[in-house]
């Protein structure tokens, strides 16, 4: 019976827990236009390359991206896709990027622990050996894995752009920001407990453990695009969209063909239907 | 209706030999020849659409199972990395399967609504209706367990909330829950047995579908007038008349389906499910898939957990009882204006319940405050709206429907479903219309 009541309590807690979060607020996401928004919109390869650079030089210091391998960078629709190298494992840019990383392995003759240069088959390296180490290095907060970040947040790329550019916004007077945290109006949260002003005007947003990650000229873009905070944020958000949905270009291209086929096929079936039923009242 | 006599003639020595031993060709030929009312409208195409949906789910599911790893440690990775990124067209197969579940429910809801509107559940089709209800319940169980398999946050917490409901039953609740979990919490063993059952149930559904179709072929199809088929002139052979119509409808349905697959693959999915299951972090909103929301609202409308679970069961049970609740002699609501309107309100009520299920229980229905508290919640809360809608849901079944049969005034019902009610007269004049019944 104790387990029964425990299970009941767990269920009730789950049902009751929801309203506690209902006060969570967030500023309306910033409006950004992306090349990949519409049903016929695709990734902008140059933007993905810039975004990869921001990810590599800034984000990857703390965030893992465990589901993306170097070879994926050279896949169709990817940042370094080259039509001359249909097999991404032959793509020289991808090979060089992979080779720059050292991976732990064992020596195939002696079995000793060694480090070897990365191959295109290797997944992006994890900045921390385990989540505990990641938390310990980041003031107790775990930087989320970025493979699916865009798909795992309401608002996707716009959310990422808004949070990244809103991180470190000067908090309104009366809001106590805890040590090691930053105010971000676009981070979903509930600030009631840290607000000393008018209880009817609690500021929207929440706290984020990530220090403002971007500064102007934090990276140097290879294509000469000026590296403003806005540009860096847009590009990295586009790159993270690709990382979460690398098959989008392929999906939309196939979709157009399928839709055309289906419309023609339906038309033919309708004509057959009319023809067969022509002599029958119904 | 008229006795359906087999018109199959074995054409070769082999067919005659086989026909005497296993008349499977005769069986198929008779199915194709089956006399079908000539006035069926597009609402009747959803039976074929549903058969198509089941086939698609089974085929894509078998392919997904080849790449899926049913373990707590590997499930999320096998779906999100292996299937979505590495398997050739894995993203497409998964998108078809995941969105296919929603399309399947969309079609089944239309199919059920059609049966309710045209009185297809009434004698002599009660068993047909009961089998349909069984399929629907099996579909819900299958869909629920399938939703757990990607092992995202919503998968995990949805499984936790729903399986914990069983714990509400005294004495048996606790052991059943533990058996279902395979332990003391939702974990890898739970996922493993859900995968096993998720693979099994569709084949049970397919078997009940076979019975459903068998039960359809005994009394034959109902039709929009609800009037019995009186002569062969009222019918056309299923093939080619309804095969072509069903194929056209399936094709249009697939267009809608394809919009989701290719352009809105995640539209019906919660973003939280792209975060791997974590027993230590509860998502802000735990909401079931859209097709279960009305029942979720009924469950939450009742403060006592056990009563809530029983109400949920009663909401489904009422559907099973419908053939015996309805006292009207007239089948089709075309000729029952009052019944039609009260049923349409019931449909709106189900939509309202669905909306309530997606909201927080203390959310406000109209902008402004929660209103004065009545019993436990303010009257302007989702909880009270779902209570009102739930009361109408049950009142329609257990009060309105049985009483209407005695008090309502019905419109004149046509004598036959043929000539007087045809909405689309033949474009070729009389005489030609006699041809189809004899046509092979």
Indicate the topology.
The complex is a heterodimer of chains A (about 280) and B (about 450).
Chain A: H1 2-20, H2 45-57, H3 70-73, H4 92-99, E1 102-106, E2 113-117, H5 131-137, H6 156-166, E3 182-184, E4 206-208, H7 229-244, H8 248-277
Antiparallel strand pairs in A: 1-2, 3-4
Chain B: H1 13-21, H2 24-33, E1 35-37, H3 46-67, H4 75-86, H5 90-117, H6 126-148, H7 153-166, H8 173-181, H9 188-217, E2 235-237, H10 238-263, H11 293-301, H12 305-325, H13 337-358, E3 373-374, E4 377-378, H14 382-407
Antiparallel strand pairs in B: 1-2, 3-4
Helix pairs in contact in B: 3-5, 3-9, 3-10, 4-5, 5-6, 5-10, 6-7, 6-9, 6-12, 7-8, 11-12, 11-13, 11-14, 12-14, 13-14
Textual characterization of the structure:
The complex is a heterodimer of chains A (282) and B (440). By secondary structure, chain A is mainly α. Chain A has helices spanning 2-20, 45-57, 70-73, 92-99, 131-137, 156-166, 229-244, 248-277; strands at residues 102-106, 113-117, 182-184, 206-208. In chain A, α2 packs across α7 and α6 (156-166) packs antiparallel against α7. Chain A is globular and about 80 Å long. Mean pLDDT of chain A is 91; it is low at 1-22. Chain B is an all-alpha fold. Helices cover 59% and strands 2% of the residues of chain B. Chain B contains 14 helices and four strands. Chain B has helices at residues 13-21, 24-33, 46-67, 75-86, 90-117, 126-148, 153-166, 173-181, 188-217, 238-263, 293-301, 305-325, 337-358, 382-407, and strands at residues 35-37, 235-237, 373-374, 377-378. In chain B, α5 runs antiparallel to α6, α6 packs across α7 (153-166) and α11 (293-301) packs across α12 (305-325). Chain B is globular. The relative contact order of chain B is 0.12. Chains A and B meet through α1 and α8 of A and α4, α5, α7, α8 and α10 of B.
């Amino acid at each position: 019976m104790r387990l029964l009541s425990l299970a009941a309590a767990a269920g009730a807690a789950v049902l009751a827990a929801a309203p506690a979060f209902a006060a969570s607020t967030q500023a309306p996401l910033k409006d950004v236009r992306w090349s990949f928004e519409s049903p016929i919109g695709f990734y902008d390869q140059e933007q993905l390359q810039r975004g990869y650079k921001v990810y590599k030089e800034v984000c990857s210091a703390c965030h893992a991206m465990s589901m993306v391998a170097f070879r994926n960078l050279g896949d169709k629709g990817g940042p370094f896709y080259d039509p001359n190298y249909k097999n991404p494992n032959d793509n020289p840019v991808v090979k060089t990027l992979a080779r720059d990383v050292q991976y732990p392995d064992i020596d195939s003759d002696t079995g000793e622990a060694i480090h070897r240069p990365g191959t295109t088959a290797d997944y992006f390296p994890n900045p921390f050996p385990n989540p505990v180490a990641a938390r310990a290095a980041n003031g107790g907060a775990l930087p989320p894995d970025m493979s699916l970040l865009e798909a795992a947040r309401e608002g996707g790329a716009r959310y990422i752009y808004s949070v990244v550019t809103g991180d470190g916004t000067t908090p309104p007077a009366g809001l106590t920001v805890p040590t090691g945290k930053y105010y971000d109006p676009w981070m979903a949260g509930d600030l009631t407990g840290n607000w000393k002003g008018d209880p009817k005007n609690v500021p929207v947003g929440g706290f984020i453990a990530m220090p403002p990650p971007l500064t102007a000229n934090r990276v140097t873009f290879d294509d000469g695009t000026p590296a403003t905070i806005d540009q860096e944020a847009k590009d990295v958000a586009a790159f993270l969209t690709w990382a979460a949905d690398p098959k989008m270009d392929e999906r939309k291209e196939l979709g157009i063909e399928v839709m055309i086929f289906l419309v023609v096929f339906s038309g033919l079936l309708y004509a057959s239907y009319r023809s067969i039923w022509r002599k029958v009242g119904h | 209706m008229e006795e359906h006599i087999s018109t199959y003639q074995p054409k070769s020595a082999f067919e005659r030999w086989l026909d005497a031993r296993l008349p499977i060709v005769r069986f198929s030929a008779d199915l194709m020849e089956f006399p079908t009312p000539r006035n069926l409208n597009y609402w009747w195409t959803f039976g074929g659409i549903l058969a198509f949906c089941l086939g698609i789910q089974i085929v894509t599911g078998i392919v997904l199972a080849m790449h899926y790893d049913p373990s707590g440690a590997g499930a999320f990775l096998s779906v999100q990395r292996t299937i979505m990124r590495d398997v050739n067209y894995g993203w497409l197969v998964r998108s078809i399967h995941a969105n296919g579940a929603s399309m399947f429910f969309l079609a089944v809801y239309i199919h059920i609504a059609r049966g309710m509107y045209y009185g297809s559940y009434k004698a002599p089709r009660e068993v047909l209706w009961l089998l349909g209800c069984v399929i629907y319940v099996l579909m819900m169980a299958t869909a629920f367990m399938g939703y757990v398999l990607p092992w995202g946050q919503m998968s995990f917490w949805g499984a936790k909330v729903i399986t914990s409901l069983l714990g509400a039953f005294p004495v048996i609740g606790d052991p059943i829950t533990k058996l279902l979990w395979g332990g003391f919490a939702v974990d890898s063993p739970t996922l493993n047995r859900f995968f096993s059952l998720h693979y099994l149930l569709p084949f049970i559904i397919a078997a009940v579908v076979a019975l459903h179709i068998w039960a359809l072929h005994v009394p034959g199809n109902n039709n929009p007038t609800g009037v019995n088929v009186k002569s062969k002139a009222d019918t056309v052979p299923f093939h080619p008349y309804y095969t072509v119509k069903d194929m056209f409808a399936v094709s249009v349905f697939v267009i809608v389906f394809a919009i989701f697959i290719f352009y809105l693959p995640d539209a019906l999915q919660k973003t939280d499910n792209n975060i791997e299951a974590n027993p230590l972090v509860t998502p802000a909103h735990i909401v079931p898939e859209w097709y279960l929301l009305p029942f979720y609202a009924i469950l939450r409308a009742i403060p006592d957990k056990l009563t809530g679970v029983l109400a949920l069961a009663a909401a489904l049970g009422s559907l099973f009882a419908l053939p015996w609740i309805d006292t009207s002699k007239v089948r089709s609501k075309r000729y029952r204006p009052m019944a039609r309107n009260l049923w349409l309100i019931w449909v709106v009520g189900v939509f309202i319940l669905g909306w309530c299920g997606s909201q927080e229980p203390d959310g406000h229905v109209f902008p402004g405050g929660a209103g004065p508290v009545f019993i436990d919640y303010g009257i302007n809360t989702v909880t009270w709206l779902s209570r009102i809608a739930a009361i109408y849901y049950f009142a329609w079944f257990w009060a309105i429907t049985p009483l209407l049969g005695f008090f309502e005034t019905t419109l004149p019902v046509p004598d036959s479903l043929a000539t007087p009610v045809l909405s689309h007269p033949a474009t070729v004049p009389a005489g030609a219309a006699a041809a189809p019944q004899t046509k092979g």
